[in-house]
Amino acid sequence: MNPKKLYHFTTTEKAIQYILPFCKLKMNSLGKMNDPKENLLHIINSHNYSDEQLKRGEISEIIDALMMSNETKIISFSTDKKRGDDIVNGYNLQRMWAQYAANHTGICIVIDYEKFIAENSKVIEKYQIKDGCVEYNNDFCVPPSFSPLIGMKSGSKKPDSFSRHDEWKKHQSNTHFLKEQFFTKNKDWEGESEYRFLTFIEDESEEIYLSFKNSLDKIIRGLNFSKYYMPSLESLIEKSKIETLVFDRWHGDFELHSETK
Fold this sequence. Notes:
The protein is built from 10 helices and 15 strands.
């Protein structure tokens, strides 16, 4: 099921300087993510492969496939999360405010999912961008064409016959491959309730942006947002779309207060 809202947490400085003036979000390299499954180049445990595989050079291809992290572009959001019979709003994920919005001094950009997809339909089609919810469990395994995650390697020489772009093209319609490799994380990350968009490009220097100019729902100021940034924020976003986060001590959750009230 697709989410109704997407929540992107960021620092105030980054939002005011780079994001809100253009109402665009940049897709970054998978290698910049903080999950070790995604941001490390891993060495190969040759004991997991047969002599025939070693002779055919498949290990070299596997090493190279693991180096796709820079060419895999990704952008992550949070979504509303089900907790028992209740729904926890994405802006109520307290860990996200602490970890990605500079300990509540930043903001949360709330985006309407359906409008966002429509607004970026041409970019999504051009780059064949995939999107979906991340699943969390401790039983996932890395697909057979990839190495067990047992260490780190600074780099490797790729064989001329191997194309990472072809590898992506071959697997991008494989639902199982995408789920295991890009949409599954350890349960320790479950509090993020992540929803991600990703694609693969041959030129890692190419930049891809997704617009939210027509799909912006609201901007939420964190608990410790500095009042001195308010003039800058209001110069970029209409006041009716700016809301303030407050803490409800009785229930231990956040509430929103509109700036227009």
